[in-house]
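[job 4417] fold queue: 2 targets
>>> target A
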Amino acid sequence: MKPDAPSEIRGPFRPIRTNVPGIEISELFPRMARHADKYALIRSVHHDGPAIHETGLQLMQTGPFSNSAIVPCVLGNMGCNLPTGQADSRRVVAGSVDDFEQNCRLARRLTEAGTRFVTVNMFDTVFGKPSWDAHGSRPFSTFADYKNHVGPAFDRGFSTLLEELSNSGRLESTLVVAMGEFGRSPRINPAGGRDHWPQCWTVVLAGGGIQGGQIHGSSDRIGAEPRDNPVTPTDIAATIHESVGFL
């Protein structure tokens, strides 16, 4: 959040306080604000690859821990007709593309049954439906989609997952990673949205031995590049490997 930046940088959403003093997040996530003591925000993630969905997805999805399960489906058309990095999944577990909260619950049950690694896709495509791909005009999403659909869906699903894992005593042994393939451009574009931006974005880590209630790294004054402690997708993958015992 850049609440003191000019309007073309800060956008329409305001920060709200969390249950950890000094940590603020977007008003789109009021339930997450009550659980900030459970997660860490990595605010300096970046990569130097092309600003297309497939590149970021390949960087984030591939590796020795290739997916054991994907809920509710493998990603479809992301714009360039290139692999998304999910081809190595061992199985796809059916769920509703429109119900992220239920799919998070399904992922929790899969881990309880012994599945080591589960990917939950919020959306199967960026075309013709609300998603994080808020370029500002159709067939892509708008800030109104963020406010009315995308933000509330993520807030419910992610918070419910943390609550249920915490209540069952399994959060400490289960690593929860919320991440996208890149961020969004620091300046609002002429269509009233934001474009692809791999130069800087945020990843959320919870459980699995991760210390909650902390922020690692920061961005510059307009959120364009890391200001300190830059983190790459490779670093995120290494953290996952170490947390789940592959290193």
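>>> target B
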Amino acid sequence: MRNQGQLILGVVVVAVGAVLLIGNLFDVDVWVLCWPIGLIVLGLLLLLQPQLISSDATSRQKLLGDIRRRGEWEVTDEEFWLGIGDVTLDMTQAEIPPGETHLRVAQLIGDVRVSVPEEVGLSLSSTAMVGSVRAFGRKRDIFFTPLRLTSENYETAERKVRLETSMFVGDVRIRQAEGAE
């Protein structure tokens, strides 16, 4: 499902709003309940590891800390689940297979930085409660709004990367490196 990140974020926002409304109506300190419930939900997500992009994609989870891929590595369909931390994927020296490769980043707080060779097509779908995206020479702020951007060469490129990000608070930076292979 292409808008699953947006759906999840929408459900979270509606649930938080409903809990706050109930708390105000009945004069209850809802934050005493929200933190334990939030931790339980986060734990269940980590245990169940829902696959959002494909059943054969690998999944990597980290509650705190960064995920970094640089140098020579093989790009495959993959999901990254983070609590708080940054994801850096430098594909300028990576082996990117022909066709379309799907990458999914789901995190609460953090930044996503991606570098791809100029000849690789990149499609970005990003959803955030609050954040910004810098890609393809443009900067866009995100506030409860999904954003889709595609490189000019995406349709004609032999190698393509489809990047989906969903975050509570964070920034996305995309860089297409010249002359990289």
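[job 4417] complete. Note on B: The two ends are 31 Å apart (CA to CA).
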